Amino acid sequence: MTDVTIAFGPEAAIIDTLQGNFMRILIETQYKENYGAHDWDGTGECPQYWKFKGGSEIIVKVNGFRFYDDMANRKAEMVVDSLRNKIEYKTNYAEEYIIGWSFVEDDFQTEFEKSQLEYEGKVTFPAKRINYDELLGETA
């Protein structure tokens, strides 16, 4: 995980100039698939045989917040909670849910992105990146 610089007073203004007046939040999810549903004919109760199949990493840019803001953690929790209905889902066949979040720097790359750069020389499958303010403008 990348270290985050926390500053107050004059140092905060310098960081604001360098990083802008926003923060990025890395949201990590877990995806599970119900293998019991593969042969289910839709009648009765669906058999339960869940397998963990990986997950997703979503990087959210949030304008107007800073890492060093006294309320940054609470604001980030509110952002993540407000995105749950756009990220999480559950059916008889599969489910995906948020397992955690953290603050990341502007140039943050996931381990998968770093691996692609190292072995392929380019990132073919980047993590999903969204702008929270633009997402709020969408209709649900």
Characterize the structure shown.
The protein is an alpha+beta fold and 140 residues long. The protein has one domain. It has four helices and six strands; from the N terminus they run αβββαββαβα. The protein has helices at residues 10-19, 72-87, 111-120, 132-137; strands at 22-34, 50-52, 57-63, 89-90, 94-104, 128-131. Strands 1, 2, 3, 4, 5 and 6 form a six-stranded mixed beta sheet that branches. A hairpin with a 3-residue loop joins β4 and β5. It is globular. The chain starts with 9 loop residues before the first helix and ends with a helix.
Question: Top keywords for this entry?
Answer:
single chain, 140 residues, alpha+beta, 6 strands, 30% helix
- Secondary structure category: alpha+beta
Beta-strand percent range: 25-35%
The percentage helix is 25-40%
**Number of helices, where a helix is a run of at least 4 consecutive DSSP H or I residues:** 4
Overall pLDDT confidence: 82
Helix-strand pattern:
HEEEHEEHEH
Please outline the major beta sheet: 6 strands, mixed
Number of domains: 1
Gap from first CA to last CA: 33 Å
Approximate shape: globular
Number of strands: 6
> What is the CA-based Rg, rounded?
19 Å
Question: Summarize this, please?
Answer:
By secondary structure, the protein is α+β, with helices and mostly antiparallel strands. It has four helices and six strands.
